[in-house]
């Protein structure tokens, strides 16, 4: 998309939010919310579900560098606990795996540098009423980029078969292997360079 891109700490590794017990959180706003809701008689499970959905500490865990203690973040005691999944999601693994989220982000950054249409092209939303497919084009000086995304957890119809056939070039996809011209798999995203 247009604008200044940014990557929040750990996003490029696929780090995930946590779901801790209340005593492991540090955010004073979150702790006050918990105390207030519990004092007003809300069920604890309901309060915790709200915290899991909106709490800021869920994404504030230490950067996961490797599989050593505290994910290699510190030899001391971190302010907030490390996400327990650091044994599987960490920078060391991501750098060594060419199919990792980290390398996908690198490809996206390089595409943005290589194709000024991504940054400066005119935006046009396709299928604004489609609840499953988010699709748009960006066009600049005769160059067109087409982006199609399925934000659902199920396979959905891809109503762009005509645009995806012929000499159009797939620039990036988050799935490997053969791609369907009529369907998008769960959470599938693709970017095409359209040859007019």
Number of helical runs?
A: 6
Q: Which structural class is indicated by helix and strand composition?
A: alpha+beta
Q: How far is it from the N-terminal to the C-terminal residue, by CA? A: 21 Å
The outline comes out as globular
- Characterize the biggest β-sheet: 5 strands, antiparallel
Strand composition percent: 15-25%
Order of helices and strands: HHHHHEEEEHEEE
Radius of gyration: 21 Å
Average pLDDT confidence is 91
The residue ranges in which pLDDT falls below 50 over 5 or more consecutive positions are: none
Count the E strands.
7
Spatial order of strands in the largest sheet = 1-2-3-7-5
**Amount of helix:** 25-40%
Could you write a compact summary of the structure shown?
By secondary structure, this protein is α+β, with helices and mostly antiparallel strands. 27% of the residues lie in helices and 18% in strands.
Your description of this structure?
Helix 1 runs antiparallel to helix 2. Strands 1-2-3-7-5 form a five-stranded antiparallel sheet. A two-stranded antiparallel ribbon has the order 4-6. With 196 residues, it is of the alpha+beta class. It has six helices and seven strands; from the N terminus they run H-H-H-H-H-E-E-E-E-H-E-E-E. It has helices at 28-39, 44-54, 91-96, 101-114, 116-120, 161-164, and strands spanning 122-126, 133-140, 143-150, 156-157, 169-173, 183-184, 189-194.
